[in-house]
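Wed. Picked up where I left off yesterday with Peptidoglycan binding-like domain-containing protein. The coffee machine is broken again, so keeping this brief.
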Amino acid sequence: MDSEGKETDLYLISSVSLPSWCRLKGLLFGLAVLLLSGCQLLMPTSVKEPYEVADSTDAESAYREALILDRTGRKADLYKANVLLAYSAERGHTGAQYLLGMNRLLGRGGDKEPTAARALLTQAAESGHASAQYFLAEMMLNGRGGESELAWGAQWMERAAANGQVEAQLAMGVIYASGLGGRENIPMALLWLSRAEHNGDQTAPLLIQKLSARVDKPRWQAVQRQIAGRISIDPREARRAITRFVQLSLNNAGYAAGVEDGIAGPRTRAAVAAFRNAKKLTGQGIDDPLLSQLRSSQLAYEQQAK
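Structure written out below (tokens, as returned):
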């Protein structure tokens, strides 16, 4: 996780019931408790005293001042902190986008604004902030602040996991074991749970034990051999999460993209080209216009499947 994430990170207490894996309504691996250092979760909706940031202030200085104010937990300080964070966030400061997004989500220093929180976390997540990726995924998977997007939320969760977010690694184990937002993948479930266990998560061993009970011994041994030596995360895995989403959404849209393994082979490239042609998209390969179209296609698929 990046240094900014460590400075302002929130902690998660996760409760996962494995018997409910196959029932989306029973799958609650999201936030049970959110705590922020010095946090007071019940805040008044407004603070009368106006506060402005001088135009000459640079984004990093405003962010640093906001951190000091935010940690006091006092009402007036939280309001001022959010003004400073908004100033920095508008100027592209990733840490400010993340912390302001969490404050908007929790209602710290003002009203709860989940839609604004989701937009801010998206900005930080796109800049590679692992904690922002994790909480954005949680919001998308649970339909907070906007539409529920299972597959797109799962790819954000996997990107957070690939960036070292241990809670996301645990969540990816559950996602792959349940097929939430995609298809069941026991080897990938065990791989992410094993990584979470390796990184000190105390829930992961129990989930691994429950996962092993779901498959026969020969298959479990084959799965263990398949993931052997892969505990260390390949730097390419975050990008593969995006490719895996592309493959899944193309397959669901009727374009044969092949195995959803996160590796863009000939079948995936052909499916991408066919989809781009059908949607009259300029350019080539996996880019933002393609991902936008595929998100819409996958969202329609998920809503129809409900």
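Quick read: Residues 1-48 have pLDDT under 50 and may be disordered.
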